[in-house]
Write a structure and sequence with these properties.
The chain is α/β, with parallel strands linked by helices and 482 residues long. The protein contains 14 helices and 18 strands. Strand 14 and strand 15 (404-412) form a beta hairpin.
């Protein structure tokens, strides 16, 4: 780390006093005590106010002056340049005036005197100027940091938060008063704190880099875990370590985009596999039947051509649906489970018996939710017959691993799932129906995942198929808008 270089900056002082000869003497003493200072003098309060716009670091003023005393002058200066250091240096004063001056915010109060008093005045000017400049720099940096929009923090040498900007407060969900003075362990795991300490140790070492970038999980006030990149550096120091500063970047959206791209690639491979494998059979059948139809002119072969084309059209339609249902849901309505089941039942079959075990509503995209119910009921109708009984209900129960799951289920009283591995029913092209595409339940899974839910296949209590949708937030039926 390079040592911090101290550069003595010029100091501009405005000294106002109605005694011109005293001003000349004062200017000589102050510029001798403060080599970096330039003292501008004014022999009336109004003349001093006229000079004020010339960027001064401190104002020194007498108290007893005609037309405007020192406290009245302070009030006027403070209105025009709030927090500008203002020191009363007066020959006529009292404890009452001194107390009043300090109560209204005057930076300092001194009685006029010899060289020792000038030295005290010079020290107060220098100290007040440094504080004023530090405060202005802090405000400027704070404005810049707020404008950047990234969550930014400063941790002091005691490993406590000393500064955070609005974006940091918004990211973590904690009140600023809770953060300032707290340790990073407030929102990091023990491993995260240890990792940051290791990175900081590398930065402050004599051969280390000026900054480090690393991944860290931020635990928000409401329990959410946000993956971030932390860009950390040490505050400038010479001998004593002063702390560190960092900028966080929320990368959860980037991770979501990468996951979505990965899912899209998986779907693309899946579609290619389905098209190359499943469409091949009806295509070959159509080609063979067409050739035989041309040779024999028999009606049966023309019917096979038509059937093969219908089969391919059905599969292509299902593939398009499969692709569309995989997109994340952005528009949600509060939908009644019983209404969805009743509408789907009327669409699929008129002979089905529907049982609603408990009324509830879920938030979902209406079109895709109707397709979900239609596909499951159509699956029941195909495998159990038109007089199948379909039951819809909600669940709050422990699964076989004693984990609580909440959501809803749709089950039937048919012959059940023929596979030992029930997960196979969701794989594209897996079907026991000669006329089926095997995409219906794959579409169901895609719709569930697009809503952020999990769907599993089980055996129902009656031996039929049961489809359970977990991680679903349930609402009273009365809240349903559709």
């Amino acid at each position: 780390m390079s040592p911090e270089i101290q550069i003595q900056q010029p100091i501009r002082v405005l000294h106002i006093d109605d005694d011109s000869s005293f001003l000349d003497l004062s200017q000589t003493y102050l510029e001798r005590e403060l080599p970096a200072a330039t003292v501008v003098t004014a022999d009336t309060p109004q003349a001093g106010l006229d000079e004020l716009d010339r960027n001064f670091d401190c104002v020194v003023s007498d108290y007893d002056m005609p037309k405007m005393d020192g406290l009245e002058l302070f009030e006027t200066v403070n209105e025009r340049q709030p927090r500008l250091p203002f020191v009363l240096y007066t020959g006529k004063g009292s404890e009452e005036i001194a107390s009043k001056a300090l109560n209204v915010g005057v930076t300092g109060y001194f009685q006029k005197g010899g060289p020792d008093q000038y030295q005290r005045l010079a020290n107060r000017i220098e100290h007040a100027t440094n504080e004023y400049r530090t405060e202005r720099e802090s405000e400027r940096y704070s404005t810049v940091l707020q404008a950047l929009g990234y969550p930014i923090y400063v941790v002091n040498e005691r490993a406590n938060f000393e500064y955070v900007n609005d974006a940091f407060v918004e990211l973590t969900g904690y009140d600023r008063k809770e953060i300032i003075g707290a340790s990073p362990g407030l929102m990091k795991s023990d491993e995260g704190v240890e990792q940051a300490d290791e990175m900081l140790a590398q930065i402050v070492s004599t051969t280390g880099p000026d900054s480090k970038q690393f991944s860290v999980d931020i635990y928000t006030n409401d329990g959410e875990v946000i993956p971030c990149h932390d860009h950390m550096a040490a505050l400038p120091f010479e001998d004593d370590f002063r702390g560190s500063v960092g900028i966080l970047q929320d990368v959860s959206e980037h991770k979501q985009q990468r996951r979505e791209l990965s899912r899209q690639n998986e779907r693309l491979e899946e579609f290619v596999s389905i098209i190359s494998h499943d469409l091949r059979s009806p295509l070959h059948m159509a080609q063979t039947a067409t050739q035989l139809a041309d040779e024999t002119n028999e009606a049966a072969y023309f019917e096979k051509v038509t059937a093969a084309h219908d089969r391919m059209e059905q599969m292509i339609t299902e593939l398009v649906t499969l692709a569309q249902t995989g997109r994340s849901v952005t528009q949600r309505d509060c939908l009644s489970l019983s209404t969805l089941a009743e509408e789907a039942g009327r669409t699929v079959t008129t002979d089905m018996t529907l049982q609603i075990e408990s009324e509830a509503a879920v938030e979902g995209e209406a079109g895709r939710m109707r397709r979900l119910f239609e596909n499951i009921i159509a699956n029941a109708d195909t495998h159990a017959g038109p007089d199948v009984t379909v039951t819809v209900g909600v669940l709050t129960e422990l699964d076989d691993r004693e984990r609580r799951r909440e959501g809803f289920y749709i089950e039937d009283d048919g012959p059940g799932i023929p596979f030992d591995d029930h997960e196979r029913v969701f794989e594209p092209s897996v079907t026991t129906d000669d006329d089926g595409t095997g995409l219906g339940l794959a579409i169901v899974r895609r719709i569930a995942e697009a809503h952020g839910w999990t769907v599993t296949a089980e055996d129902s209590a009656h031996g039929g198929a049961r489809f359970v949708f977990s991680h679903v937030e349930l609402y009273p039926r009365q809240r349903a808008t559709a």
